[in-house]
Amino acid sequence: MTQFIKDANWRYATKKFDASKKVTAEDLATLKEAIRLSASSYGLQPYKVFIIENPEIRAQLQPASWGQTQIVDASQVIVFANMTEFGDDEINAYFDNMTSTRGISIEAVQGYKDFMKSKINALSAEAKSNWTAKQTYLALGNLLNAAAELKIDVTPMEGFEADKYNEILGLTEKGLNASVVATIGYRHDEDATQHYAKVRKSTEELFINL
C-alpha cells in the first residue's frame, strides 16, 4: 500500500476540532503552495482563496454555516471563491504571466489566446460562473491530499449559505462568490467519528472497464 493510500485512509471529515492546536506557519505555507499548484481549466485559476483566522469574522460565519462548530474551533477557515465575471482582462493577465514566466513572445501564443477567449467569452454568465466554481473543487482536492500527508485534518464543507458568506466577506463587489469551504486543524480526542470505518463503494461497484 502506497503512502498516498495510507494517508487517504487516515483522513476523514473532522466533526470536532481541538481549538487549542494550531497549524504552523510552515505547514500552512505548504498547504497554500499545494493549492497554488493545483490543476485548473486552461491553467487559469479563476478563483481567490481566503484564509480566515480572525475570530470575529469566524463568529459571523458560523450561523451562515448551519451552526457548525468547525468554523470557530478549527485552526483556519479556508474559503474558495470563484470569479463570477471572468473575461478578457483575466485571460490577458494569464498570458502576460505566461510570456514573462516562459520568456516567450505574445505572438508565439496569440492563436491559443484568441482560441481561449472565443471559448470562454461564448459562455453565458451562468455557465461561466458554474465553470469557475468547478475549478475550486480541483484546488480543494489538492488541499485534502497535501493536508493528509502532513497529518492535518480538513473538513470540506458545502453546508453554508453562500449569499451570507458573500455579504460578510464582501465578495460580491469583488466579482467573487463563495463556492466551497474547508476548515483545517487537528481532530479532537472526543471526536468519535475518527474511529468509524470508512464507507466507500467497492472497486467492483465503482469502476466500469470498457
What's the SSE blueprint?
Layout: H1 3-10, H2 25-36, E1 47-52, H3 55-61, H4 70-73, E2 76-83, H5 88-102, H6 110-121, H7 125-149, E3 153-157, H8 162-169, E4 176-185, H9 203-206
Antiparallel strand pairs: 1-2, 2-4, 3-4
Helix pairs in contact: 2-7, 5-6
Q: Count helical runs.
A: 9
Order of helices and strands: HHEHHEHHHEHEH
Tell me about the largest β-sheet: 4 strands, antiparallel
**Poorly predicted tracts of residues:** none
Output the strand order for the largest sheet: 1-2-4-3
Averaged pLDDT, please? 97
Radius of gyration (CA) equals 19 Å
The helix fraction, in percent, is 40-55%
Instruction: Bin the strand percentage.
Output: 5-15%
- Shape label: globular
β-strand number: 4
SSE-based structural type:
alpha+beta
Report the span from N to C terminus.
26 Å
Written overview of the protein:
The chain is an alpha+beta fold and 210 residues long. The protein contains 9 helices and 4 strands; from the N terminus they run ααβααβαααβαβα. The protein has helices at 3-10, 25-36, 55-61, 70-73, 88-102, 110-121, 125-149, 162-169, 203-206, and strands spanning 47-52, 76-83, 153-157, 176-185. A 4-stranded antiparallel sheet has the order 1-2-4-3, sandwiched between helices. Helix 2 (25-36) packs across helix 7 and helix 5 (88-102) packs antiparallel against helix 6.
